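Batch manifest, entry 17 of 40.
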Amino acid sequence: MEKNSEIRVGIFGLGGRGRGLLRNMVHIEGIQITALCDLYEERVERGKVIIEQAGRPAPLFTTADYRELIDCPDVDVVMIFAAWL
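Output type: structure tokens
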């Protein structure tokens, strides 16, 4: 199996905790945020801004449906930052 030079990450949940962790993740070498998911479109848009302001490429995929995020071929791992219920 071939090693990836970067891990492609999809993020689910972009409320306060998710945005805070995203701000940290955009500065970690070897991680590319390729997909964002949240029920609220404005949160996804704010997440895209955080990524682009860090000088990283915009995510390839955004959705409000976590099932689409899980099935996205451009994602190696899904990080879940949704509220604890």
